[in-house]
Amino acid sequence: MCVALVASDAEATDPQLVPDVSQTEIEIRYSFAGEKLLLFGAILYPDGNLPDADVDIVVVLKSPSAPITIREKSQVGGIWLNVDAVSMRSAPTFYAIGSSRPIGDIVDERTAAIYELGLDNLQLSPTGFVSPEELGRFEAGLIDLNRRNRLYSEDFGAVSIREGVLYRASLAVPARVPVGRITAETFLISNGRVLAVASRDIVVRKTGFERFVAIAARQYGFLYGLAAILISLAFGYAASAYFARR
Length: 246
Known about the structure:
Immunoglobulin-like, alpha+beta, 2 domains, 12 strands, 4-stranded antiparallel β-sheet, globular, 6 helices
């Protein structure tokens, strides 16, 4: 009973987060070039008293994790070939993090790893045995590739906190963002301890002609493939006829 009472008191004295996002749906059209998503909210303190210690905010946008195979290419006899591969049980297809200060200044390595705060702390577990050196090489390759495609990003100055109560951050959602659900997580941290966590869901979906094409490819694969071949042949024939006349 004493343990429960202590835990209850600790929870009662911890502040709470009231987060929100600028939009809960992102629609992908033919002209979609990415979005700037605004994450904002308030910190509610017990009895309205601000803490003596400073607080930090970390916001994370993350898509659901999925299995992935990473292949390494090398030049063999003048030809680029896949020479090695590692399969991961799960990896986010999109990950963006912003914070009020560098992560290393906010929490220790253990806490950062538990909450996957930062690209270096993503839990990318291989499906089979892989040496630490090889695993590190493939993880670095995956992160670098997704960085260049703007699917992974870090901005350790994106969050601003006003008077210790209101916070806001702007994170980029790239044009290549995968369709589905994105979770926007907000972490309130003080003295290296996570005091509160709150989340909001954002839905990314295709609309218009892009949605029609995606549904057709998924539900009518054979007819979609046949139509794609016929269209390619038609364009090829039209191009050859045009240049034959010149």
